[in-house]
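Margin note from the TA: students keep mixing up input and output lines. Inputs are the sequences; the output is the structure of the whole complex. Example:
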Amino acid sequence: MDNFTFYSPTYFVFGRGTENEAAHYVTRFGGTKVLIHYGGGSVKRSGLLDRVKASLEASDIPYIELGGAMPNPRSGLVYEGIDLCRKEGVDFILAVGGGSAIDSAKAIAAGVPYDGDFWDFYSKDMVITEALPVGTILTLAAAGSEGSSSSVITHEDGMLKRGASGDAIRPVFSILNPELTFTLPPEQTANGVADIMAHVFERYFTNTKDVEVTDRLCEAVLLTMIKESPKAIKNPEDYGARANIMWAGMVAHNNLCGVGREQDWSSHGMEHELSALYDVAHGAGLAVMFPAWMKYVMKHDVNRFAQIAVRVWGCHMDYDNPENTALEGIKRLEEFWGSLGLPLNFRELGAKEEDIPFMVKNIGLKEGEHMGSFVPLYNEDIEKIYRLAL
Amino acid sequence: MDNFTFYSPTYFVFGRGTENEAAHYVTRFGGTKVLIHYGGGSVKRSGLLDRVKASLEASDIPYIELGGAMPNPRSGLVYEGIDLCRKEGVDFILAVGGGSAIDSAKAIAAGVPYDGDFWDFYSKDMVITEALPVGTILTLAAAGSEGSSSSVITHEDGMLKRGASGDAIRPVFSILNPELTFTLPPEQTANGVADIMAHVFERYFTNTKDVEVTDRLCEAVLLTMIKESPKAIKNPEDYGARANIMWAGMVAHNNLCGVGREQDWSSHGMEHELSALYDVAHGAGLAVMFPAWMKYVMKHDVNRFAQIAVRVWGCHMDYDNPENTALEGIKRLEEFWGSLGLPLNFRELGAKEEDIPFMVKNIGLKEGEHMGSFVPLYNEDIEKIYRLAL
């Protein structure tokens, strides 16, 4: 196990009706003038936005609004949000929505006190050390942004999708009411499932030894997702299933499952090019990339793949040939994601073979550079993995 | 799943050599005058105390010392610590040791700004809302106090052992270096193992439905303990085993494994009487009480006991008679704890049958009152469970 620090100071408020406590927590964490930041129409249609506003009004907390955060949130709205916050003297950002609204809110929060271009944090590996406090009201179990220190934004100039991070953008509170996810269509629910499971996979496949406790925590999240996801797809108002998925989504990405170990994240890197180019859902892109990546790197550590096959997918260990078990685990993953309606290849996703060279180039690795750590991937590897996903 | 809040803001610093960063974190969390609080001679003999002092001196942070926190820490030292902190203008308490030193430090921290008797928090179910900040350097994986909001103190007047809690006494930082546990004798290591596993059991046995994610997280900790504990007993300097156990001990008790569900805690209540009366280690007492409690309450939810037997102990499910599986799981627990050298009954612990009525009485339940929630226990149940442990 490697040395690490772990810091997850977010105050989580979980359960039915908890969105009505928004004003209480805004005040508790110092907010006196709020920007409510959200995405499209669903938070309006559902009445959630009105309830949040009513909660703030009842507590005499002034607020302004900025909607329009879209999946794969864009830089343009971030610039707009930063200007708005500065002009209006906003000191607290309340994101209402899924990972997109939250990631966009985090970018705005980091940009307000920063003298330069907020994109510096995303393009230059600069850690975010100062930001307005962000609170969240989550409506989609997927990105884990409600408990994470990271944010991913797509810059409209070149459609570059890049991440930034720092403890300063960890939400000070996050309100998680599983009921708010009842109205999600099966496709969005499934995309979220793939996203959550992918956050675990990125941490699970590691070369660090002696990480049993984090292995087991990773497996705990995956086992939960395997049991609960089909229930939520079948019956969108299954509170128990929605609740388990929502909390698993947070645990999958606040880094509890990843401490003390080298993490990989190359599948996320490859996926970002898919969603930047085709504007597909991040989870759908991950469902395409992960099985391909797994097949490509499996031989690097067959026993680790056999371990997940046995412990998570319930495969029987083939002691004569562990590779069979490892492959069986990948097959089970594909079958599981397929059963939820997720795309598993370029064709099902609507991605095109001829764009592969562009995507490889767009990742931006120079000659001799690699990404990932479980198996370092160079441009030629990345191209092969994209082709395995055709 | 029940509504819940989860808040674990402690900054964890984990790994080799991390105790040398103590001064950095004291300053980061606002400490300008420190009380170093510790237990017996081991932190002196090992040189740890000197290293911590050197770290503070190198950063020009003034400090005073108070040693003497013993297992089942006592009220007398807490009163002494409170007086000392007030007199010396201490604004930060750094606990160096195991759960006893940390629990004692938390009690002092709560007592300093409180006008009344600190024991009020322990005797009257008052939540602690104000306290000096506490940092910890952990030397024993067991109590989980390094990440918890609770503290247990024994009052010398009547040897009452009682707990108190509140977010204000959660450590602001905790330094966890597994190397600091290398010198623990097997007996103390084993006591810690029982304590950690017991913290999970108290949360696992619940009547709350739809808690798959927390079930799986509980099982993750238990599976880790089963794999790693024998390694640490056999080779005390097995860093990987010590590291996995140390982090599992934190996860077992910062309440991640317990959110959204009714918890029981009656075995802890019964054990507190054992350790208060005989001054035995808390973990040893838990190893005696838990199997007895399990046998007494098992029939209330045989399937839950069968689930843990299959998922954690690897038993085969007896579909014709799940009770056999449930019993097999309890037997495996006893065998496992026995293999680590833990006592499993009153005789092995040195407790006496004739003291049972006194212990039952000392728990303090009035006529018609109960403790626990999985199965409510009245005085007559408690007596029977103590007798099952003979």
